[in-house]
C-alpha cells in the first residue's frame, strides 16, 4: 500500500493537470485483487481519502481485494450513488474504474499460441536448466555447501536467493530472517542470472511480445485523442513484453552472456514497477510530444529520442500493424506439431499393417 500510494502522491505532484479533472481520468485493472488494490492505493495517494470510483460496491466484492489491500479497505467506502442533493453537489472526485480489462492487461493469457508455448516448459526451461547444472552454479553450490557445512543442490541455493529477496523486499514478513547473510559478495549475481534467464525465456516468448501491441495501441489512442490520464494496473508479465515490443529491450538473454554486462534484468520491473507515456503540448503548438518514464525516471523512446513527437510514434506503431488474431490464433510452421501429426499417421499405418498381417496369417 505505502509503495503505490507514494507513487500516486508523487505523480499528482509532478503532473497535477493530468489528474485534476476526474471526468478525464480512467483507471483499468485486470480481475486480480492485487491489481485492484494497487490501483486504489495509487488513487488514495493522489487524491487522499475523499476519492470515489464508479463501481465501488462491485470492486470490493472481488475475492481477494480485502486480503490484498493491507488493512486500508476502510478507506474505500462502497458509495455508488449520490443519494442526496448535498452528495450530488459534492466535489469528491468520482473516477471511471474498470476492473475486468483482461484483454488489455493480461493479453498474453488471451493469446492461445502464447499459452501453448508457455505450457511447453521443457522447451523454454531447457537453457535455464542447463545453466543450473553448469560450471557457475556448480562452483557456487559447492562453495556454499562447504562454508555452511551442509550438502546443497543448485535448487537449494536458488531458494535461498529467493528468501533473501523476500527479506529485502518484504521486511515485515521476514523481520528475523538472515538469508542474505548466507551469501558472500557477488555470489547473488550467479543465482540472479538463473532467475532472470527463467523470466526472460518464460515471459518474452515472441507471441507475448507481439500480442502486447493491443496495450500499446490503447495507450497511443488515448494520447492521440484524449486528455487527462489513462492509468492501468497489471502484472510483471504485462510490462516485460511491452518494453521489448517498443524496442527498449533488444539483446536476447542467453546463458553465455556476462553476469553483469547484459541488457535484461528482472529488476527492470521490481515490486511496484511502473511505465508511463506522457504527452505534452507547447503553448503555441497543437503538436504533441511524448516523454516516457520507467520506474519514475525519464528514458528515451527507442529510435525517436527524448522527448519524441507523437506523430512519429504513431508512424512507428500503426494500428493496422497490430494483428492480435494473426499472432495468437494463426498457425505458422510448428516443427513439434508437424512431428506429432507425422507420428500419429505413422502409428495408424503400423496398426493397419499389423492388422493386415494378423488377418493373413491367423
Write a concise synopsis of the structure shown.
The chain is α/β, with parallel strands linked by helices and 362 residues long.
Chart the SSEs and their pairings.
Blueprint: H1 2-14, H2 16-20, E1 25-29, H3 33-47, E2 52-53, H4 56-60, H5 65-68, H6 85-88, E3 94-98, H7 102-105, H8 112-119, H9 121-124, H10 126-132, H11 135-148, H12 154-169, H13 187-203, H14 206-211, H15 213-225, E4 229-233, H16 236-246, E5 275-281, E6 288-294, E7 297-299, E8 308-309, H17 310-316, H18 324-329, H19 335-361
Parallel strand pairs: 1-3, 1-4, 2-3
Antiparallel strand pairs: 5-6, 6-7, 6-8
Helix pairs in contact: 1-3, 10-13
Order of helices and strands: HHEHEHHHEHHHHHHHHHEHEEEEHHH
Percentage of residues in helical conformation: 40-55%
Major beta sheet, strand line-up = 2-3-1-4
Number of discrete helical segments: 19
The biggest beta sheet is recorded as: 4 strands, parallel
Report the average pLDDT across residues: 82
Distance between the terminal alpha carbons, to the nearest Å? 77 Å
User: Structural class, please?
Assistant: alpha/beta
The percentage of residues in β strands lies in 5-15%
Contiguous uncertain segments of 5+ residues: 70-85, 333-362
Describe the global form: globular
The beta-strand count equals 8
Radius of gyration: 25 Å
